[in-house]
Amino acid sequence: MAKGNGGETIIAHGVRLEGEMAAEGDLVIEGEVHGNIKTTGDLRVGENALVEADVEAENAVIAGEIRGNIKIRGKLELFPSSTLTGDVVTDVLAIGPGAQVNGKITMGSAVATRASRKSEEAE
Amino acid sequence: MYCYVYDEFLQDRRYERDLSLIETRLTDLGIAGKIARLALFRDSHELIRDEIRNGATTIVAVGNDRTLRRALDAVGDTKTVVALLPVGPQGVLAGLLGMPVGVLSCDVLSARIIEELDCGEVNGRRFVQSVRSEDASFVARTKNYTLTPLKKSSFEVRNLAEPDDAGTQSPVDGRLSLIIRSTRFGLLGKRQDVSIVPFQEMMVLFEKMTEVMVDGESLPGKDFAFRVIPKALRLVTGRTRKF
Predict the structure, then answer these.
(1) What count of Cα atoms within 13 Å lies in the side-chain half-sphere of residue A86?
(2) Mean pLDDT, to the nearest integer, of B160-167?
(3) Is residue B139 part of a domain?
(4) Which residue in A42, A105, B4, B62 has a CA-CA distance of 20 to 30 Å to A26?
(5) Do B194 and A2 make contact, defined as CB atoms within 8 angstroms?
(6) Which of B83, B111, B139 is the last residue of a domain?
(7) What are the residue boundaries of the structural domains of chain A, listed by start?
(8) What residues of A are in contact with residue B145 (Cβ under 8 Å)?
(9) What pLDDT, in 10s, does the model give residues B25-72?
């Protein structure tokens, strides 16, 4: 169970978010998200979480399910319980045994920064 | 110029000694000022506004949480500095603001560490601490997203409060925090799930008519519009403040 830690945004189990969220600081998802999520900090997706959204964060640790494209400027860590369906852009990638990834993976710091800048310009 | 606003309950003789010690210490520190006493049939807003018009630059609420809230309501948008000088039984604000109870707070007042705190507003009513409701069905909506608890949950919109399972929220960050708590029953027993979402403006829409508690006072309604007013309050704080 996630506990508040000053500056964090937490979507706990049993709560659904629909729409576009731009968070400042770390973002923890243990519930459901449908839409787009972006944070300037780190992202953590819990084992029972369901995210149907495009995701952007500094670093991420994923233990649940994500259906959408993911852009991580730093390190993306996929736990064995994670399932990703969508394209991934990241600088560093760690995939635990049993994690499922269905999509295109593009890696390298230059690529991750370019992809992040492109989405900022598009806004 | 300091103006000390004494709450009505301080007329009780048991506070005489404390008040005498405080008045002596304030004189020693060079921050004694006019004393105004709140009374049952006297409008506290008018009393405090008159003092501000007469040149008071700091309003010191002598009493407890309720005294401070009345002072903050009266000061409104004037940007006058407000302080709490805790005397008698206290709520949570003295501790949160780092103001010790009794004569010790005179020295803290004299040090004059002023913080500009955010203030919350719900349906036009301002609050310093929080707005809470019991378990109910509701939806929280901003211009970009909607949050829906999937079962009955309690909600709290917090500006300033004691640290708890929702952590610590800062009252100087220009945001309020929506805290949604729901209970889950599992094999290992009951557990509580806590969501925390910082925001600047939000609507909370209840399924049925509900009573929410705004800093301990009831406000009935079905739709509640929240917004933060950044740096609305200028408060004297102590070094042991909890934010």
Answers:
(1) 19
(2) 83
(3) yes
(4) A105
(5) yes
(6) B111
(7) 8-122
(8) 17-21, 35
(9) 999 999 999 999 988 777 888 899 999 999 999 999 999 999 999 899
